[in-house]
Amino acid sequence: MAEAFLALGGNIGDVRSTFDRAVALLCDGAVVRLTARSSDYRTPPWGVTDQPPFINAVIAVTTSLAPHDLLARAQSCERALGRDWAHERRWGPRSIDIDLLAYDDLVLDDRDLTLPHPFLFERAFVLVPLAEIAPERLIAGVRVRDALERVDANGIEKLPPR
After folding, report:
1. Of 37, 73, 83, 123, which one is the catalytic site residue?
2. What CATH number did the domain enclosing 119 receive?
3. Sign of torsion, CA 99 105 106 107?
4. Contact indicator for 52, 11 with CB cutoff of 8 Å
5. What is the mean pLDDT of the chain?
6. Going by C-beta distance under 8 Å and a sequence separation of 6 or more, which residues neighbour residue 124?
7. What is the pLDDT of residues 72-106, one digit of tens each?
8. Per the residue annotation, which of 99, 137, 145, 146 is the catalytic one?
């Protein structure tokens, strides 16, 4: 079984309920097993800033799926939850976004998947929840908590449990 980290994000609709449904769809307890889930965080928009704040979280899973198959499963969950890439603006509003951040210690760069995620160490909205559940985890030789210290996390707010 491999260990993988996935980021969840969204800013349209009841995002926290959408996260619950996404985790339930993604993690069947057999081929993908949830091992940790961060708190939810309200975060300023990144990339395209003229939109509502996002809610972000990170989950850790163990999986028997290969990386591309895990990505395909995440994308299938996004579609099942109403994501429509054809009608979205890049980095714009969305109901759900699931990104594969890291898969074991695999380094991969092909047409469909780059691991670790190419923007992982630039995005506080990913590093804050990731550091909550895996602060000592090394990804590409960088400790998550150290990566978090290098980015501006201003404006990120931990949301209370529901």
Report:
1. 83
2. 3.30.70.560
3. positive
4. yes
5. 94
6. 43, 148, 151, 152, 153, 156
7. 999 999 999 987 766 666 766 788 999 999 999 99
8. 99
Name the pTM for this structure.
Answer: 0.95
Catalytic pick among 37, 40, 97, 123: 97
Cβ neighbors of 100 (< 8 A, separation 6 or more) are 4, 5, 6, 67, 70, 71, 74, 113, 115, 117
Q: What residues make up the domain containing 19?
A: 2-158
Distance of alpha carbon 36 from alpha carbon 62, whole angstroms: 10
Which is catalytic among the residues 37, 40, 73, 94? 94
**Is 94 part of the annotated catalytic residue set?**
yes
Alpha-carbon span 91 to 54, nearest angstrom: 11
Four-point Cα dihedral 73, 160, 36, 147, nearest 10: 90
Helix (H) or strand (E) holding 6: strand 2-10
DSSP-derived 3-state class of residue 155: coil
Alpha helices in 10-86 (DSSP H): 15-26, 67-80
> What's the total number of domains in the chain?
1
Cα separation, 159 vs 87, in Å, equals 29
**Residues lower than pLDDT 70 in the chain:** 85-89, 91-92
